[in-house]
Amino acid sequence: MQSLSTPTLRIRAVLAIAVALGGITDATSQDAQTQSPPSEIPIINTVIESWPVDAAMTRQQEQAIWKKLCQPYTPLATRIPLDRWVDSVASLCPLQIDRYSLEGIGLTADTELQFRLDRPPQPLLVHLLLALKPLECVLEIEHGVVQITTRDAAEYDLPMRLYDVSPLVDGSNAQERLAAAKLLIHTIQYVIDPEDWEVLGGTSVIQLQPAKSKLLFCVAAKTQTHWKLQAFVDQLQRARDETLPLEPAIPNRSNRPVSPAAVGEPERAPEQAERTPRSKTALPRFQPR
């Protein structure tokens, strides 16, 4: 067997180290793409309990999908066909294309998505929603499947969800709590996608359902409406738990002293001597020793 010289062994050792480092770098970059999403993302860090009403998807399966969608992602091109982009992110989160619905509004699987490369690192979900908005398309999650479809198609297959809004409803008795819950429903219908609710001409529905000591909202709406609703009720609960700081006093910009009435204190009544000036001929008051 032919022996190898020392320089040859050194060269091979250097090459082996380079290959190993290259593998480590690739693994590190891959881990960076699949790292856990930050916990401060609203749909990951929820406060108000809610559950999907789905015969083929549990709450745990749904949360797993949310975490996949919230992984950090950086677009590699400003324009890319939809089907090619879906294939490129399959390792992060598998997606399906509702080709039939897209063809109904003149789109195809090779319609280009547009991304901005100058944006800071953001979750995959954010980039996708921004790219779908000009196309009048939305993202739907149902039966454990994430699907890209049209707004019109999403309105006729609404995912259902239960929300436990008991912590948001105050009242000393059941009647007052029901009235507070109905007011909350009214607020939701007028601030979250108002045109989508049935009472305003849309197809989404929200109903109040008492359950023993709890008050539940039964909601049928598009997935993106559910995300907004979850973020809204979560923020309401956080606002109730926080102590709001007192507003600072308004600074006095003039050189005149601030009167007690200006700062909310009752003004003292002037003395009788100040209201009735003394005459020049009046005798001085007797001062006992």
Automatic annotation (TrEMBL):
Basic and acidic residues biased stretches: 265-277
Region (Disordered): 245-289
Name this polypeptide is given: Uncharacterized protein
